[in-house]
Design goal:
By secondary structure, this protein is α+β, with helices and mostly antiparallel strands. It contains two helices and ten strands. The longest helix is centred in the N-terminal third of the chain and has 18 residues. The radius of gyration is 17 Å and the shape is globular.
């Protein structure tokens, strides 16, 4: 509990970062707003078990990549882990590469349930800065080039959700040339 008069950090100031292309393995999942909560940790556990069986080491924090969002019906997500070298997936496990490029990013500190507010803050900042995300509005929902939530804190090592750090990052649309 913070001292009286001290406001705890909710998230860092948004910024633009450069991300290199990054190989990863994932478990693609279709969820809705009711099933997303348990689907993420369950899918991470399945992915980690597969990686352990195939002697593949993670090269960074776990993440969720949102590919299609229709808040009223379905969300197509990938629950993933970066890896050092390209490895072929099999069965339900898919291999891919997170795209390189410029990303709008912020670090949220607090429970996962607050990530909606962090995403809204990042979107408002990008709008104010005149930045566009790499996304398209389609009849099926919003399709993203890359919309990530990277879970920087291991809940086993830090059990207090108030201290969990999560990076929210959206790939920015390519700037017009010429």
């Amino acid at each position: 509990m913070p001292a009286p008069g001290i406001i705890p950090l909710v998230h860092t100031e948004p910024t633009i970062i450069e991300r290199p292309a990054e190989p990863y393995l994932s478990l693609p999942v279709s969820v809705n707003m009711e099933t997303i909560g348990p689907a993420i940790p369950d899918s991470h556990a399945r992915l980690l078990a597969w990686m352990s069986e195939h002697d593949v080491e993670p090269a960074g924090p776990p993440f969720v990549r949102y590919n299609l969002i229709d808040m009223e019906r379905e969300l197509e997500i990938e629950v993933g882990l970066p890896i050092r070298i390209g490895v072929a997936g099999d069965g339900a496990i898919a291999a891919g590469a997170l795209p390189a490029g410029r990303y709008a990013s912020l670090i949220h500190v607090g429970p996962y349930e607050e990530l909606y507010d962090a995403n809204a803050a990042l979107q408002a900042w990008a709008d104010a800065e005149g930045l566009s995300f790499d996304m398209a509005e389609t009849p099926d929902g919003d399709r993203f080039g890359s919309r990530l939530e990277l879970y920087l804190t291991d809940p086993v090592e830090e059990p207090d959700p108030a201290n969990w750090r999560t990076e929210v990052a959206y790939r920015l649309a390519d700037e017009p040339t010429g």
